[in-house]
Amino acid sequence: MDIFDRLRQATLADWTAYVEHPFVRELGAGTLPQAAFRTYLEQDYLFLIQFARANALAIYKSRTLADMREAKGTLGAILDDEMHLHVRLCARWGMTRDDLERAAEHPATVAYTRFVLDCGQSGDLLDLNAALAPCVIGYAEIARALAPSLHDDHPYREWIADYAGEAYQGVAARARGHLDRLAERYLTPARLGQVQEIFATACRLEADFWQMGLDSARRAH
Ligand SMILES: Cc1ncc(C[n+]2csc(CCO)c2C)c(N)n1
């Protein structure tokens, strides 16, 4: 069992509420209201900007070149791949880059991203990566679970296919391996409870992020 499995086991209720959130189920079934997906995409643009900062912080918090390269890899993936993909996906859903730039951060976006940044600022690289893990590894698991239900005219096909694709699955597997090596170096029995709490909180904030999308669609009707 690697550290990720141990953290998931210890926080299973929070983990499950995140990866099996009604937003995820409806996304997979193709029944998610479009307004919910649009709000999610808009806020995710703002989320990704802060997530890039969190990975820049991980470079700063690194004490070895190898750790710096890991964080640089994720930062590059966000700046060079994920962000472009995201803007293209938003364009297909009728949102321009200007629309995205003008959007205000929702409290759920602020809460999640600043929590992650604070874990990194007040803690070490293990704390920061424990806060990042539900995001990076969770999306890979969610998309893999949804991929079998894909069909040609599925409305959320691109989103699912991107995260279920080999490139992203590789990014997540790498992040998982890195988290395990960080735990070998930094995790002590005395720290385990705190690291679990960080992981669990990040899962709850991911679930709140999904809920924000659903709530916006409810308001729109
Ligand atoms: C709320 C939210 N949580 C997780 C992700 C997924 N994600 C963000 S950055 C990154 C790694 C770099 O490619 C991944 C997988 C997201 N987009 N939005």
Explain how this protein is built:
The chain has one domain: Heme oxygenase-like (Heme Oxygenase, Chain A, Up-down Bundle), CATH 1.20.910. The chain is globular and about 45 Å long. The termini are far apart. It is mainly α and 221 residues long. The model has no long low-confidence stretch (mean pLDDT 96). α2 packs parallel to α11, α4 packs parallel to α7 (107-122) and α8 (125-146) packs antiparallel against α10 (166-186). The chain is 84% helix and 0% strand. Bound molecules: ligand VIB.
What percent of residues adopt helix (DSSP H or I)?
over 70%
Q: In whole angstroms, how far apart are the ends? A: 46 Å
Named once each, the bound ligands are: ligand VIB
Low-confidence stretches: none
* The number of domains: 1
CATH topology type: Heme Oxygenase, Chain A
What kind of oligomer do you see? single chain
Q: How many H/I helical runs?
A: 11
Main beta sheet = none
Mean pLDDT score: 96
Which architecture does the CATH hierarchy give at level 2? Answer: Up-down Bundle
The best one-word shape is globular
Specify the structural class: mainly alpha
CATH-level-4 superfamily name: Heme oxygenase-like
Query: Strand share of the residues?
Result: under 5%
Backbone CA Rg: 17 Å
Order of helices and strands: HHHHHHHHHHH
Protein name: Aminopyrimidine aminohydrolase
GO molecular function: thiaminase activity
Pathway: Cofactor biosynthesis; thiamine diphosphate biosynthesis
Pfam families: TENA_THI-4
